[in-house]
Amino acid sequence: MIKDTYRHKGMRKNLVEKIREKGIRDEAVLKAIDAVPRHLFMDSSFLEFSYEDKPFPIGAGQTISQPYTVAYQTELLKIKKGDKVLEVGTGSGYQACVLMELGAKVYTIERHKSLYLRAKALLPTLGYNPVIITYGDGYKGLPVQAPFDKIIVTAGAPLIPEELKSQLKIGGYLVIPVGEEIQVMMRIIREDASNFIEEKHGAFRFVPLLENKAND
């Protein structure tokens, strides 16, 4: 098995400084990025590039997100230790591990079976154990496990799914990139049973969130 060496740790520290220079200010988020060995979530052919601030393919037409994007979304969530967090789009499992480093109780859902199976096998070997990692349609969330303190969507959605908004606790945050070719990062805050505040943040580019889809 590939190890997490002093060289990798040094590369992570350099990555953290690059992210800090781009505007990430939450020290807890930066510490979590520094702690999670990103190279262990990637194909061996990309190992030398693991700590570049870029997305890379992970199979099934999906990518491991750019570290800055992971940090940006995580910072918007304002994670507190013990927060119950739904992640829509497990992918490689990297984002889930960053959330767990911050003390979140993570429930994560992936629609590509190959990625789901890989993440389910990998994460425990790295010492990360989501409460639930499941295979299914992220558009629907996990209503049986709701409500959640925070929800993060790691794929670009054409609109904000009502099912996900309904699964937020009062005072909870939903962070989701919304748009077609280029997405606007939205933070939705649930004020009460029927009212939501919508905030627009930066522009990003994600793989699409597809409705009614669960693929092998």
Q: What's the architecture, going by CATH?
A: 3-Layer(aba) Sandwich
The main pleated sheet reads as: 7 strands, mixed
Mean pLDDT: 94
Uncertain runs are none
| Strand composition percent | 25-35%
CATH topology: Rossmann fold
Instruction: Tell me the CATH superfamily.
Output: Vaccinia Virus protein VP39
* Main sheet strand line-up: 5-4-3-6-7-8-9
Can you describe this structure?
With 216 residues, the chain is an alpha/beta fold. The chain has a single domain, classed as Rossmann fold, CATH 3.40.50.150. The protein has helices at 6-21, 27-35, 67-77, 94-101, 113-125, 162-166; strands spanning 56-59, 62-64, 84-88, 105-110, 132-135, 148-153, 168-178, 183-190, 196-204. The strands form 2 sheets. The chain has a 7-stranded mixed beta sheet with strand order 5-4-3-6-7-8-9. A two-stranded antiparallel sheet has the order 1-2. Strand 3 (84-88), helix 4 and strand 4 (105-110) form a beta-alpha-beta unit.
What's the short story on this structure?
The protein has helices at residues 6-21, 27-35, 67-77, 94-101, 113-125, 162-166; strands at 56-59, 62-64, 84-88, 105-110, 132-135, 148-153, 168-178, 183-190, 196-204.
List the helices and strands and how they pair.
Blueprint: H1 6-21, H2 27-35, E1 56-59, E2 62-64, H3 67-77, E3 84-88, H4 94-101, E4 105-110, H5 113-125, E5 132-135, E6 148-153, H6 162-166, E7 168-178, E8 183-190, E9 196-204
Parallel strand pairs: 3-4, 3-6, 4-5, 6-7
Antiparallel strand pairs: 1-2, 7-8, 8-9
Helix pairs in contact: 1-2
